[in-house]
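Complex record, two chains
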Amino acid sequence: MATELNRSKRRDISREYFSRERLAEHHYRSFNAFLGRGMQEVVDEKATIDTDIGDKEGEEPVHVELGDVRVVTPRVREADGSEELLYPQEARLRNITYSAPVFMEMSIVKGEEGDERVVDSTETKIGRMPIMVGSEKCNIAGFSDQELIEIGEDPADPGGYFIVNGSERVLMTSEDLAPNKILAEYDTKYGDEIQVAKTFSQRRGYRALVLCERTRDGLLEVSFPSVSGSINFVTLVRALGLESDEEIVHKVSNDPEVVKYMLENLEEADVQTEEEAIETLGKRVASGQGKNYQLKRANYVIDRYLLPHLHEEGVEEEDVRINKAHYLCRMAEACFELALGRRDSDDKDHYANKRLKVSGDLMKDLFRTALNKLARDVKYQLERANMRNRNLSVSTVVRSDVLTERLEHPIATGNWVGGRSGVSQLVDRTDFMGVLSHLRRLRSPLSRSQPHFEARDLHATQWGRICPSETPEGPNCGLVKNFAQAMELSQNVEDEQGLKRELASMGVEGIPGLEGIERSTADD
Amino acid sequence: MVDVNSTSDCPECDGRLRTRGTETICEDCGLVSAEDSIDRGPEWRSFDEEETDRRRTGAPLTRSRHDRGLSTEIGYGSGSNADYRSRLTGRKRRQITRLRREHNRARISTKAKRNQVYGFTEIQRVNVSLSLPDSVREQACILFESAQSEGLFPGRSLEGFAAASVYATCRTQSNPRTIAEVTTVARASDDELTVAYDALNRELGLPTGPIDPTQYLPRYASKLDLGTAVERRAHEFASTLLQNGAVSGRNPSGVAAGCLYEAAGEREEWPTVTQAAAADVADVAPATVRSTVQTIRKL
């Protein structure tokens, strides 16, 4: 081995990893991605704000359409009304927030469908967004060391934090269990060992836990939000359109042992057709209601709360259902294989089963709830203005403090949406190393008052990702970790549709909405 | 926590009295003229781990809420209570939901209160849209309330009063906005604002005189993207005009724009600032700017 020869080169690489741009890079990248597309995605998800105007006789319905969202760079409005650019050091010294105005195109649309006309359409300021120091919307982005010194900034400062009311707050990276993955594990119920396949199905900030259990008598049961208790597996897949016995067995597994288990389940099944299955489901989700309502509710629950991550923009719910059935069959297979000892239970501490939520992801969650709050306020203001016979105009229905408040308060206090606390922390300025370590720290959401021995242990898959020695002593030991020096954090794909199209062209079947894609056959 | 007590002067030296915390002190000689036995400020104890968040009770009393911020809300549980396991379920939850709804309805007792709530939200909205400080909001709400208790509302519009309260407060705090600036973000029309402002001015005796054009300068300078040097020169022009009594009869906003235009011209920033642009910012006709410029040149 020529390790001796490469020493100087290795040193160069090492030094490169310690450069200013690298140390908090995961924070900028994540936040820049949020500013670049995350915000627009959240707005596009929302798309419209509906109002109750038009419910009365002889009144035209009104709704608001949301368009492009735009963030400028941080600036401050003085008491005398003048506005100027704000630099981080000034924000720190004056105890103000380093935030930039956010603008959004909004149009108020009046009239029935087909006869709609835009009453008012303008780009209006909807609030202020705290900006990460060093991100692309930061006023010091691209400054040379000399320029940084001139505006009172430390050229060695890594950035990657926010300034709210003059205090520097860093958003703690949090380590969560990977969503949309099947995890099989053992559990106990009434003293018996049972097998469970779990999935945290996540889509647009909505997170639903779907469980598939194999009970002690060998029957499969599924539970998901909005349905209390659990539902028979066969009933549910039949409701999803997988009707015949053969089909169901085939989709679960071809393994003779598993088939045997599956046949036991089918024998016990109390429904045979899709209609029957939906009826049974309806009785569960809306018992005591009229039959029509039960059916409506059952369909709604299936499409809305069951495995939401399988939904696709612009694809009929009907097409998604069969995929949900297939997914449930995969979960069933995992249960059976675990029961037969064909596989071990999944390791939750394996790093392949972990996802990191960095500042951009956290800000996206925050922006989503803030925008919803703003939408509710706009709806109220519109209805109010309409009731008092005022002209409806965009600029008079938007209260920009609503969004600002919702964005700044969690960063200032650390009380995030979803009840998590301690998400933002005061940057540790004890010394320079303290800052660097703090920016590269990550936290497990597990409670520190419980043992969780496995979660605290060093896992082999942390090699090269997590520092094996840097963790606090005491209750947080092993739950608070630090990135390894050469850690590289990958991001989610930008264009999920594109990825799926590519997969379909390579021969993956059953992706809804992409059936007609030409398959390119590999030449080799 | 600093309040300027302008109603009384120091009994010893006629200096200004200032209230700081529990004591009222003369700024010049340091005489403690009054003492409040109750400290009405927040308690400086921290109950959280964070040292930055020292407080024991909720937000301070405010005049900008119809109930002075003393309302009680039935919440949904927060912090560790927001955990899905400890959430209420079934009958209990439905009962609490009904209670919450009735409680919300009971918060507003009369039609007058409802009007006040509407006015206050409108004031808040206008205030935020104009990026005005919170003190303006507080003052505007007090003004709105006095207008209501004086019985000025019948026959005039609520939106007008809300907008006029903000306009009047800005004006009395020497930080004037033009009527047009307020009405672009307010729900009131120019007429509604003027009618309401006249009523306020007449019935409540607002302490307002003619607007000093210099008060517009920083804002317009920043809008026209002019430096501090230009602004300072414009300030000189405006002061000269004032001393010579050449301002009366002209829109002060236009005078400010004229001064800025002339100052910018001196520093050869012409291409960026035209008379039309200056007039546009000040919301006056270019002729007003032009005549001001001519007056400046004559002096």
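Note: The longest strand of chain A covers residues 117-130.
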